[in-house]
Amino acid sequence: MAERSTAAVDVADNSGDKPLAAKADKATADGVDTQNGRAADGPMTEKDGERTPAAPAAAPELHSGHKLARRYRLEECVTRVDGFSSWRAMDEKLRRAVGVHLLPADHPRARSVLAAARSSALLGDPRFVQVLDAVEENDLVYVVHEWLPDATELTALLAAGPLEPHEAYQLVSQISQAMTAAHREGLAHLRLTPSAILRTSTGQYRIRGLAVNAALRGITSETPQRADTEAIGALLYAALTQRWPYENDAYGLTGLPKGVGLIAPDQVRAGVHRGLGELAMRALANDGATASRQEPACTTPEELAKAVAAMHRIRPPEPAFTAPPEYQHTTYQQGSYGRPTPGTPPTQSVTAVPPPPPPPPLNSRTGRALKWGVAALLIAALGLGSWQLADTLLRGNNGGSGNSGSNQQTEPTDTPKEIKPGKPLPIGNATVFGKEPIKAEDADKAVDRNADTAWVTKVFYGYANFGNLDSYDDGSGIVVDLGSVQDVAGLDVDLYAAGHKVEVRAASPEASSARSLSDFPHEVVKPSTTGKDLKTTLETPVKTRFLLVHITALPSDGSGAYRGGIKEIKVLGTAE
What we know:
Elements: E1 5-6, E2 32-33, E3 38-39, E4 44-47, E5 50-53, E6 67-68, E7 72-81, E8 84-91, E9 96-104, H1 110-123, E10 131-137, E11 140-146, E12 152-153, H2 154-159, H3 165-184, E13 197-199, E14 205-207, H4 212-217, E15 220-221, H5 224-241, E16 243-244, E17 254-255, H6 265-268, H7 274-283, E18 285-286, E19 289-290, H8 301-310, H9 365-397, E20 421-424, E21 429-433, E22 455-456, E23 460-461, E24 476-495, E25 501-506, E26 522-529, E27 533-553, E28 561-562, E29 565-574
Parallel strand pairs: 16-17
Antiparallel strand pairs: 1-15, 2-3, 4-5, 6-7, 7-8, 8-9, 9-11, 10-11, 12-13, 13-14, 18-19, 20-29, 21-24, 22-29, 23-28, 24-27, 24-29, 25-26, 25-27
């Protein structure tokens, strides 16, 4: 039986709406599924005996400053098409930017959008931009999702040029694995375009619009896994060649020459990695037939993910060596000291000032005298020091000198003052640390001064180090931003459970941001397995703006499952 799936929505369209694929440029605007040419679902009207698709309801006439649920303030409209609009908004309750999709409650696709958004929210996979809310209220349906201001669209990355092999490998590996997990839960995307892929500052690729974007546009597919797999192949092809693998131009990329069909990436651009080029061809299909002749087609994201895993891992490029600036000789060393610059005519009005004599070389008569003088002074200093040392030792051991040990006075020495932590410092922001952030939306729960809330990880099996997965080889934790450089004298961390392996690290005071482990060079608390509370007073205050509570191993529940988290972080300043 043919598989069928209704997609669930694009969760964070930071840019304007773009055509779905280059197979049909007008089909998207007409509500046609350009992956397989099937008309979108929607109400029909009858005119002159013919049934035609009904026009979609008009997009709600809203404006910047409008507030939804007395919480989400609309700020900028980024998309307005096909009866719905997408906005950048501000969640005034949590003080963070969010994205909002809006459409009238009587829109023909309003029901499917709500269903898609709620299904996507239940997945809870951090590799996807998360749906935060899906509401029908006051004749409006709106979907609230994450907004990632520090992420970059794949569209922008490709505009700068093709990706190098390691980056393209990371792209296809992460996207195929994420879509494998989504399809296991019955969710398809159906609009995997370059604008749907975001690259974070940590190198993690995140997918926006799972199910929701396709539902907004009424796109369905009889073969959703095949459609998503081919879309991943198109993304990889574009990453390797900076060309869209169809005849029409799309997403700022030039299409292939008309009439020649799909050609291998290494025929489009020299130097393409052979294994990745072959992988792109295996994922791309023409009427179900693979474009690769050497290997069988990949028809599902899981098959593509396995093919990626079977490749030899592509190492990242070595950092480019930057030669130090050439040493510049002084004019004296260059032999032009006190000489006129060549080409400059002498003038009678300028009185030549004789230059000071250069220092005498040490092999001259004056230099030899100087060397002997310095040597004599050193010998005299050593002799005087030795005499004073011997005299001190003799005085200390001479019992008949009339000075007893009880009468000798020792000069007082300065003892370091004990540091007393003061009140908790205000925390400006908290973010989840890691290459693959875990439940990034819950980071504020670790600093909200409410012991009943917590940032809690997912459950990992088999290994305490986050399942021994490459995506979590740097562990996880919470990065605390104090807002400005402060003197930190102590910490009080309330953990989710006992048994975490935790360390605390600080960024340099000059740092304006801190995301990777290398951004936290200063060890504040050494790695150790702790109880439920981690309290420490520092011997010397640390000046920093950013602190990382870094978890490298999770506590076990006794059944082979590992899970952890942080309830509350308090950063203590110095007492006045």
